[in-house]
Amino acid sequence: MRAVMWRGGVGAVFAAVLLPMVAVMWLSFFDQEVISFPPEGYTWRWYVNAWEKKQFARGFVNSLQLALVAAGLGVFVGTAAAYALVRAEFPGKAFLGTLLLSPLAVPGVVLGTALYVFFVEVENAIDIDIRATLPGLIAAHVLLTVPWTVRLVAASLQGIGPAAEEAAANLGARPWTVFRRITLPMMRSGVVAGALFSFIQSFENLELSLLLVGPGRSTLPVEMLNYLEFRIDPTLAAVATIQIVLIGALMLVTDRYVNLSRVVS
Amino acid sequence: MTRLVLEGLRKTYGPTVAVDRVDLEVAEGELVALLGPSGCGKTTTLRMVAGFIAPTAGRIFIGGTDVSRAPPYARDTGMVFQGYALFPHMTVAENVGFGLEMRRVAKAEREARIAEALRLVRLDGYAERRIAQMSGGQQQRVALARALVVNPGVFLLDEPLSNLDARLRAEVRVEIRALQQRLGLTTLFVTHDQEEALTMADRMVVMNHGRVCQIGPPEELYERPADLFVAGFLGRCNVFRGTVETPGTLRAGAIALPCDGGVPGQTAAMVVRPERVGIDPEAGLLPGRIGMTTYLGGLTDWHVETDAGTVLVTRPTPPPGDRLRRLAPGDIVHLDWAGTAGRLLSPEPNGELA
Fold this sequence. Notes:
The structure holds 2 protein chains of 2 kinds.
Chain A: H1 2-27, H2 45-52, H3 54-87, H4 93-101, H5 108-126, H6 134-160, H7 163-170, H8 175-186, H9 188-203, H10 207-212, H11 220-230, H12 235-257, H13 260-264
Helix pairs in contact in A: 1-12, 2-12, 3-4, 3-6, 3-9, 3-11, 6-9, 7-8, 9-12
Chain B: E1 4-13, E2 16-26, E3 31-35, H1 42-50, E4 57-62, E5 65-66, E6 77-80, H2 92-102, H3 107-120, H4 136-148, E7 154-158, H5 166-183, E8 186-191, H6 194-200, E9 203-208, E10 211-216, H7 218-223, H8 228-233, E11 238-246, E12 249-252, E13 255-258, E14 267-272, E15 278-280, E16 286-295, E17 299-306, E18 309-316, E19 332-336, E20 343-345
Parallel strand pairs in B: 3-8, 3-9, 6-7, 7-8
Antiparallel strand pairs in B: 1-2, 1-4, 4-5, 9-10, 11-12, 11-14, 12-13, 14-20, 15-19, 16-17, 16-19, 17-18
Helix pairs in contact in B: 2-3, 2-4, 3-4
């Protein structure tokens, strides 16, 4: 009886997580402009429509570039920071740790507005455009990617402990060699997971990008919002479905190389 | 083969003194065990020798060179860690070869030396295994091979047997000692297990609260402990407190007990090892009543209640039918020991007495 209830509970949670995604994927095939149940029929035409609307393709490429660069920078900075936070002792360590995680605690819209105002001030001071430029947007997105890497890499570093690094040093390895030959390979799954989640965070971010993108350089989520202002048809569901499938595939592929569930739990 | 010298070694963490003025010389080819309860400073001392902890004061010499401020990679030590600290992403051969690679030993020679080291620890044929595929005992031997293959000047062992089960531990103990003697390695060994220290060490250092209590060969420490802490930490003992009456007699309350000398009037604690106490049903110095009997297989313990307190007596288990074998709780017995068995110590424990 207990086992049945337990399984029922687990099933309910899975359903709550998966149903919205399944619903979106289902909607994307409805053959009608205004969504109603039951569907009048099924069609591929929203996918064709999404393909023909060039802003989605352009947004996709922009988002991809942005997420790759932001995740790359975030992994680099975040890994270095996590290493220092876990292995080194220095004054202000606890403060730095909190600071690096803090972008996760600030609502995206607030962060975006703050950055907008900050960029204006900096532009006035140095007379170089930052708003509406790709470097400005990347800088903003690094704020999203760093906390994820710091958290995941720090967790995996804590898990492996310093003993193997000490053993390597004892055998004659200098600090950089220890890091390259021992630490990095041992925390690889943390770094890969950090990169993956950073990428997803940046790729699907709307709030920050909305305030900072330049004309003609909108990201995919911003383009989707723009489209929504004028039309409500299943085209967006089709675009979302493609995103879900791509990210799902990315996670599956990553999971083959590192055990994600182990890193994240 | 190198001499290791510690000179006034000290480590403090804020107001806490972890290691206090440790002086020690380990001769070439000698195995010295650092023994003490957890928190006594033995591991901190070892880690200072390896270079993982910087001493607050004092100096460390390896082969005559002052290495007190040298980084770990520049010290000529080979260490076996408590949890082995193997590299899980490398094969057994890569683990063992890591130190050689760092020393830029050419590949051909490297491979020969890896094979030799693996043969030394009886792991030939395991070179290409992954660490995760090895049992605890095998991982232990990989760690040994990895530390030994570089011919370290000083061999450091940090509780290397604590993760093994009891049977394997006794086996590996003998193996490590044999290897160490065969290769003539200057060795510093940390353990909290007195039996391990007694059986393996040329000399032992008993530590407590960051200080050295006594240094000496196992027999000396066991038979002539310097204080009550050492006496209690190494093996079991009976402690009697009293005043020396005449040289050779200790008065504890109404009873006079034999001891090894002493100055009349001196207050002292006397320790007597349980195997040195004679037990006889008929005659003897100190009468008592059997309280509890513990059968340990090869040994039997009797807890005898006397006017001087409960006295522990141990003997090889007598054969069935022996009159000692028939002793039951409540029986009257007589205890006795030679004056030389009653070692007088300062009544100050110099640390808590177990």
